[in-house]
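Regression report. Comparing outputs from two consecutive submissions.

Submission 1:
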Amino acid sequence: MSTEPGPFADGTAPGPDGRPRCPWALSTADYLAYHDDEWGRPVHGDSALYERLTLEAFQSGLSWLTILRKRAGFRRAFAGFDPVVVAGYDDDDTERLLADPDIVRNRAKIAAAVTNARAVVALREENGDGALDRLVWSHAPRVLEAPATLAEVPASTPESIALAKALKSRGFVFVGPTTAYATMQAAGLVDDHLVGCIARRPAARV
């Protein structure tokens, strides 16, 4: 995602309809749809949050556009991100996924996805359905300040550091503070749309 400011005074840029958006959203239709319809909007449910954690981990070192364009492949490969199913994946499944051109074929990241599915299952066994949802959302900041410029959007925060630590303590891997913060952005725990962006939610806290 580009960090270059847009031409409007508040750092936004005009979309295809002329309305202001975060400038990173305007390079492709894939980014535009994700920006307008998903990014920064609240996501709940263990499977949905497991998906966001998994995709953000796979994105590490790659363009987010690569992940978006392979998202359907990821969903198929990881059984709709059902953690119970993925927790049962074995070495044969790993080899199958390594041969799947519709996902990012990285052994360490595939292994992390399976490990994290097992961590979700263990968390549920201890704390019931929705345990991942409650854990993740317990780290949502109480006050959300609208970033005025892209330079004000952080890579990590005290809350993402705490979330990464909490997840790691429960057996999750590939969840450093930056990945945790990207997940918080993707799942709407924070709303980092610029203050002038049309996709910014009117309420500061959900």
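Submission 2:
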Amino acid sequence: MTETKEKILDTAQRLIGEQGYGATSVRHITAEAGVNLAAIHYHFGTKEDLLGSIIQRKVVPVNEERLARLARVEAEASPGAPSVKQILDAWLLPMAEAADRDPGFVRLMGRLMAEGMLQAIVEKHFGKIAERITGALRSALPHLTDEEFLWRIHFMFGAMAHTMCGKNEVTGLGGDTRDFGGRIERLVTFLTAGFQAPATHAGRSGANQ
């Protein structure tokens, strides 16, 4: 990657993290990065494409590490399935380690979540890895009905987003807290218990229909 391209990505990540995607103009990015407008069009195209490149730069190595860890625990557990905790560790620990290395990226993702952009980004950049992890969890939890399992996956994604990026005015925890590894250790404990809990009354009723 060229020095100019790296400078644009670093600057755009910082500015969007500080003031939001909507409030950050391409001209502001070029001025802060000390490059001309043509450089952004040449390297990235549109502002949306620039945001995609910022995310891809961080997400690709994290997802590769997730897949490597999942493959390792699956091989060790074969012919059975890994435990729920092993799968969640493979899914969440690489994210925490990357966040501890670059808290600015977490700040950017928090801004995007606040602007209602997170769902589209997750679908575009995390869809395949999410399917892979979901499939592994399904194999480890055969006793749950499909509906019950999908509800728990739904809760997992919500808890992930707010643990990493959200601010919680009720508890005072959230966006400004550091130590992402500590956050994720707590989240893995919480989610492991949640996934392994007995089916809810609604889940049991659905299974009997």
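Expected: both submissions complete independently.
Actual: both completed, but the second showed a warning that disappeared on reload.
Relevant detail on submission 2: The domain at 59-208 is CATH 1.10.357.10 (Tetracycline Repressor; domain 2).
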